[in-house]
């Protein structure tokens, strides 16, 4: 199976309650075939720094319900070592969502590249903040 590039993001939120405000956009992106969710894990860190890592099914029912219609294969892809490293970055008294996704839009391009005998030589993601700063510097 050809896949697009896989990325992840850690999104932290103050407080320890997931509202699910990102769920509608995740639903839109998956329904449109732009991304495929591979893993979705949650972290809750209390004010004292104690950490709890939760898979979707371990969330409170009202917290999990907002993600019910997000299409994907949510299957614990992240290792304990990955999660421990990520947990260190979450500020106290915060919650976080860790989302691993495939850029599904790129799978057909991957197939076409292989069929043409080509190979991907380089790929890099430039953070939006860097691009915004560069555009501002040139007056755009």
Write down the overall geometry.
Answer: globular
Runs in which pLDDT lies below 50 for 5 or more consecutive residues are none
- The number of helical elements comes to 5
Instruction: State the secondary-structure class.
Output: alpha+beta
Kindly report the spatial arrangement of strands forming the biggest sheet: 1-4-2-3
Gyration radius (Cα, Å) is: 18 Å
What's the story with the biggest beta sheet?
4 strands, antiparallel
Strand content: 15-25%
SSE blueprint and pairings:
Elements: E1 6-14, H1 23-31, E2 36-45, E3 51-55, H2 61-65, H3 80-87, E4 94-102, H4 107-115, H5 128-137
Antiparallel strand pairs: 1-4, 2-3, 2-4
Defining traits:
5 helices; single chain; alpha+beta; 4-stranded antiparallel β-sheet; 140 residues
Question: Can you put this structure into words, describing what you see?
Answer:
The chain has 140 residues and is an alpha+beta fold. It is 29% helix and 24% strand. It has a 4-stranded antiparallel sheet, sandwiched between helices. A hairpin with a 5-residue loop joins strand 2 and strand 3. The longest helix is centred in the last third of the chain and has 10 residues. It is globular, with a radius of gyration of 18 Å. The termini are far apart. The model has no long low-confidence stretch (mean pLDDT 86).
């Amino acid at each position: 199976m050809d896949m697009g590039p896989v990325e992840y993001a850690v999104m932290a939120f103050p407080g320890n309650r997931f509202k699910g405000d990102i769920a509608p956009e995740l639903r839109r992106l998956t329904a449109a075939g732009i991304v495929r969710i591979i893993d979705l894990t949650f972290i809750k860190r209390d004010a004292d720094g104690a950490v709890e890592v939760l898979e979707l099914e371990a969330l409170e029912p009202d917290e999990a319900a907002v993600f019910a219609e997000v299409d994907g294969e949510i299957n614990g892809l992240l290792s304990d070592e990955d999660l421990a490293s990520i947990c260190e970055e979450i500020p106290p008294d915060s919650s976080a969502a860790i989302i691993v996704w495939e850029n599904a839009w790129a799978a057909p391009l991957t197939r076409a590249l292989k069929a043409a005998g080509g190979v991907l030589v380089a790929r890099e993601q430039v953070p939006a903040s860097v691009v915004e700063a560069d555009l501002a510097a040139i007056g755009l």
